[in-house]
Amino acid sequence: MASGCHVLALLAVLHVCVEVTGLYGSFSSPGFPHPYPDNQLQAWNISAPVGHRLKLYFTHFSLEPSDQCEYDYVQVFVEGNETLRFCGEQEKSDEGSPRNTVIISATNLLSVVFKSDFSNEERFTGFQAFYTSEVPCETQILTDPSGVLSSPGYPNPYPPMTKCNHTITLPEGFRILLDFSEPFDIESHPEVPCPYDLLRGLPAQSFSDEVIVCGNSLWDPTSGH
Ligand SMILES: [Ca+2]
What value does the mean pLDDT take over residues 30-45? Predict the structure, then answer.
């Protein structure tokens, strides 16, 4: 995708174009939480590191409702997906409002445009959006009597903002033994159990046996439980 500002050249005059980088963050309509001014046209181009994808959601959304959101709107550009345009009030579940929509990009780029027309007489308060990024991780399903799982890129450092779900399934009667090899190195905290990164083992039929580990010693990992 070209820079969002180029994409937005389609939209007549662009007043403000903000480049947003980082693994997570938030932005909001001009003047938020106060009512937004008239005649605004603002864009946020969010870019995460290559290989990441972005998730966007709205914690507050209050724009003047209109047919097909032609007056005031928030428009989201995601490569490979339809362009989404929102207006109305989230709290009232207006048609056209994002409600609980979470927008997920296929790539590390996502653009958001906010436009208001010549009036905001009912004093709509605009929006607040949050985004996070993550590295998509392919789910593995292991069914052989023995196999290997590792963190992405192992033994190199694992990427930030990654969540991987893997399943080990063996015929009934088998027990599963997990054996960790060196290096075992998951970010930990001296006092709080695994607040940042963790490995969670969740036996399918016994949730009480959930095991959470982090740390860097195979023989004495910091245990969350
Ligand atoms: Ca308006």
Answer: 96
Provide the whole-model pTM: 0.70
Identity of the residue numbered 120: N
Query: What is the longest distance spanned by two Cα atoms in the chain?
Result: 70
Q: What is the pLDDT of residue 180?
A: 86
- Report the distance separating Cα 2 and Cα 18, nearest Å: 15
Q: How far is the CA of 117 from the centre of ligand 1 (A)?
A: 5
List CB-based neighbours of ion ligand 1 within 5 Å.
64, 71-72, 117, 119-120
Q: In this structure, are strands 126-134 and 24-28 parallel, antiparallel, or unpaired?
A: antiparallel
> Tokens 């998509």, residue?
136
Taking the centre of ligand 1 as the mean of its atom positions, its distance from the CA of residue 191, in whole angstroms, is 51
How many angstroms does the Cα of residue 102 sit away from the middle of ligand 1? 25
For residues 142 and 216, membership in a common domain is answered with yes
CA 98 / ligand 1 centre spacing (Å) = 18
Asked whether residue 201 falls in the same domain as residue 128, the answer is no
Interstrand relation of 211-214 and 41-47 (parallel, antiparallel or unpaired): unpaired
Query: Both 39 and 113 in a single domain?
Result: yes
How much distance in Å is there from the Cα of 40 to the middle of ligand 1? Answer: 10
- pLDDT of 205 over the 80 cut: no
pLDDT in tens, 130-160: 999 988 888 889 999 999 998 888 888 888 8
